[in-house]
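subagent[fold] <- orchestrator: predict structure for attached chain, return tokens only, no commentary.
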Amino acid sequence: MSLRLSTVILPHRRWHEGGRSAWQRAEQLGFHTAYTYDHLSWRIPFRDGPWFGAVPTLTAAAGVTERLRLGTLVTSPNFRHPVTLAKELISLDDISGGRVTLGIGAGGTGFDATALGQEPWTPRERADRLAEFVPLLDRLLTEDSVSYEGNYYSAHEARNIPGCVQRPRLPFAVAATGPRGLRLAARYGQAWVTTGDPKLYENGTPEQSIQAIRGQAEKLADACAEIGRDLAGMDRILLTGFTPDRARPLESLDAFVDFAGRHRELGFTEIVVHWPIQDTMFAADEKVFEQIAMETSAQLG
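subagent[fold] -> orchestrator:
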């Protein structure tokens, strides 16, 4: 099974001070997709520094690249509404010539959760909102006019003409590990995203992480089977940096090839690595990072 390599470029640099060049370099290095985080701000040390919006950043990236796919990892209901988000996504898909993937998830309890003045939602409410958000967004991206009245979101004759360049709509990559999220991924996702088991990050081992991710993948397979979907037609994406391995896979080409190979055996079709940012949890040797980008595919065979 072939394995694609993608990257995440955090939106923390001014466009004319390294922001633009990173996206162009990602295309030169041959990455399949370059994603960015869709947050209003993120954790320390980024919380009190520069941080730019995901959709404008991706729009600018679309204008300086030609082949590179672009996406979010991930967008959430924490500060998004399906009606306004759909309009932005259709515009971005048009500007990029159909190169956009929407990574989408339930969100968390970070800074986004309270930036609009609300109390953080409980895990159950986040799941409830996502369960309403995703189907409505699916309709908004595939139908010319949508009216809907839900518990959390509404739409009144929302027009989205001409729709996406990609048909029937741009692909969803649904981040999920729980049963409700996995059912959403099975029904609406062209891809599934995981970061592994967060409970293992501090004190777990790489072997325990592999077992946990295998269990997640098996639950996804069950969710697909429930609705008669063939899992083979669904991409599976691992966003790295949050397993017990942390940054170790980026220490050398051999280390990364071993890491990627073990996850390919679990059925993953795409591995996503963070663009190096020194003095952060994403610090890495840039020369090794570029070697990994250019040579991993040949090493995996």
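orchestrator: received. Logging for downstream: The chain is about 40% helix and 15% strand. The first helix runs from residue 19 to 29.
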